[in-house]
């Protein structure tokens, strides 16, 4: 490939609309161009990187015995209705009608559609099966941002396992866990395997692969000592044992004029960790009291996971007053008729403070299990930095991260809904047990840039770089230099190296800048000074190290660098 013929429109300045480093650099280096919010055109350099990512993913999918398919991107509504997700998933699902008025969706995932194919699996003898595809997905993001990190149209590798029982699913899940670990290692991504919520996917267990990055939209809780890692939506921590006194025989009301917050109540001798915070949520249309310790924040996804609610929102002040007779600031669950779900940190707590459901009045001496009719206990609180690890007791870290992959144990949710059954060894008809395994291809590309860049541009790992080497003709108007550069270029090409020659009639500084900006791992510079000595300069993009190499040894030297 010749740079003079290649479409790589680099920019001198950072685009004003770009925020994340990957967004800024992929635009500047001529990899992508925005069509509209959340939709990007991938230019030639990006297509080459994307192809290499897919090649690595395919190799690891093939290694676990997965077979590639390609299913439609547009789906009829019927299978989505059968699974319940037509109504469960909100406006993120693109919906449309065809000319006959039939409803369809643009697939944001393919569980239902793979399940329809799997109806032909009639016997346990045909299991396990591992299927995957590399397909365009659509998600009507309300706020697409970060370039390729959060888009409305993207490529995903989604894989699905089909087993006869839970033990088979466990084996499939472990195989994909290993495959994903190898994929991200090969991509140069320091991804953490984190316990995660399954969300609208359903199922029993899921693991997210999270790449630490300052621009990440997710929070990951990690223990550097033992390796525990979990998404903030799933993470838990160990709390010190509470030292409660017995308290009075019954809660005692006391006046608290003007008290509206946890902090306001501190003035009345009520430490935050001795307060019961009462939140009112509407879960699938039903007002529900959610109780936490005063200094603990609620994680809403944990509430969703604990209750299975499809619709969740905080109650409006008018709804709260109608239900409890008081406004926020004086709320409590003592004597309340509403359903109550409480965080595990409140279990067994005594001599606590809470609202009395009378404006400007609170209660002291509350014994949670004695005085409150808790209907369900669950882990609802969000873990904070510095709390103790549940495994080893060391301090936890909270990191920003980018989700680059997610694997789920789906169980029989979709097979029951779509009628995917096989005859087992005893001749009984049983639902197939499914797993789902996804990787966002363009998001992986952006995450690689987030973790591999410097002030001069992108620093691609060799495995995914658009080219391995660029040969720079320092003085294109010098016939001798041009001829020597062409000879090096031809030698590298003949040796199977992916190489581009920068033969443009530009100054050497412009060529160096573009080579650094685009992130090609190795640069071979042929110029007058080196040519006079029979040598070229070989520069490693990641380190900036430059070596002077005899012209007839350049090919062997580069091949050694690539092999190392």
TrEMBL record:
User: Is Protein biosynthesis set as a keyword in this record?
Assistant: yes
InterPro entries the UniProt entry points to: aa-tRNA-synt_IIb, aa-tRNA-synth_II, aa-tRNA-synth_II/BPL/LPL, Anticodon-bd, Anticodon-bd_dom_sf, Pro-tRNA-ligase_IIa, Pro-tRNA-synth_IIa_bac-type, Pro-tRNA-Synthase_IIa_type1
- Provide the transmembrane region boundaries: none
| Annotated EC | 6.1.1.15
Q: Which reaction(s) does its UniProt entry say it catalyses?
A: tRNA(Pro) + L-proline + ATP = L-prolyl-tRNA(Pro) + AMP + diphosphate
Q: Which GO terms describe its molecular function?
A: aminoacyl-tRNA deacylase activity; ATP binding; proline-tRNA ligase activity
Q: Which Pfam families match?
A: HGTP_anticodon, tRNA-synt_2b, tRNA_edit
Q: Which GO terms describe its cellular component?
A: cytosol
Q: Which GO terms describe its biological process?
A: prolyl-tRNA aminoacylation
Assigned keywords, A-Z:
Aminoacyl-tRNA synthetase, ATP-binding, Cytoplasm, Ligase, Nucleotide-binding, Protein biosynthesis
Location in or out of the cell: Cytoplasm
**Residue ranges of coiled coil:** none
All copies of the Aminoacyl-transfer RNA synthetases class-II family profile domain together span 38-461
- What is the first-listed, main subcellular location in coarse terms? cytoplasm
Q: How is this protein organized at the quaternary level?
A: Homodimer.
Membership in a protein family: Belongs to the class-II aminoacyl-tRNA synthetase family. ProS type 1 subfamily.
The entry's free-text remark on domains says: Consists of three domains: the N-terminal catalytic domain, the editing domain and the C-terminal anticodon-binding domain.
| Classification via PANTHER family | MITOCHONDRIAL RIBOSOME PROTEIN L39/PROLYL-TRNA LIGASE FAMILY MEMBER (PTHR42753), PROLINE--TRNA LIGASE (PTHR42753:SF2)
The job of this chain, per UniProt, is described as: Catalyzes the attachment of proline to tRNA(Pro) in a two-step reaction: proline is first activated by ATP to form Pro-AMP and then transferred to the acceptor end of tRNA(Pro). As ProRS can inadvertently accommodate and process non-cognate amino acids such as alanine and cysteine, to avoid such errors it has two additional distinct editing activities against alanine. One activity is designated as 'pretransfer' editing and involves the tRNA(Pro)-independent hydrolysis of activated Ala-AMP.
In Swiss-Prot or TrEMBL terms, this protein is called: Proline--tRNA ligase
Source organism of this protein record: Actinomadura coerulea
> Its encoding gene is what?
proS
